[in-house]
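quick one, 284 residues, struct below
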Amino acid sequence: MINGAIMPIQMDDLLRQALAEDITSEDVSTAAVMPDFCAGSVELIAKQDGVLAGLPVFARVFTLLDDTFCLQTTYQDGDAVTKGTLIGTLFGDIRALLSGERTALNYLQRMSGIATLTREMADVLKGSHTRLLDTRKTTPNMRIFEKYAVRVGGGQNHRYNLSDGVLLKDNHIDAAGGVRQAVEKARAYAPFVRKIEVEVETLEMVEEALQAGADIIMLDNMDDVTMQKAVSRIAGRALTECSGNVTKERLRAIAATGVDFVSCGALTHSAPIMDLSLKHLKRI
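---
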């Protein structure tokens, strides 16, 4: 990402795969009613309130089908819209507008849904020390889009993938023989620029992680009282992250513990889509 935007070099292959999934040989319906070029327009309309994310991705789908395509809009990613809002007007070859409609909307609806949920949860944390993170619980081949949508909504990204950082979870700890062994092995193996994060479930494991020199301690599935004790015991010697059973209703209590970060898989795996539609197609 550059300046928060997804670069075409990163997304074009994925968009082409999505289009190829939907058009294996031809768009039979469109070819039947519109066999030849005809310029046209269609309106992008919000059917519910929400936060927009993915407008450049949405437009790029059509550009891949028609290099004359144009989206006229005064909105940008991160803007909130209400039900009934005319977000913009699309201009181009009607064949491309028809064939690209579903693929383009799938991206925009999915990404806007994630941004909308993220904004709702990030707003709860406003004024607190705690920052909202996503996870790797993303849709296969959609991670770059879904993590971008989290940032648009006001959240922050955790590691992008397994090559991006060291996170020692319960099974890594079991494989290594304990928290101390896992941290020591990771410290010896990983490049020195990598921080070491370790997942703990008890106050005893917190002590082990501190003694081993972990940089980040993930407090996994702890109740609020235990988490408060853990944060107090860590006392700034490592960054702290809350994970597990994170809901919007619980966020204020989590923030009150003083934890640095809260990660929430629901941002990407459970966000409902934002209902959007293309309507009023016209020949020009």
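The radius of gyration is 23 Å.
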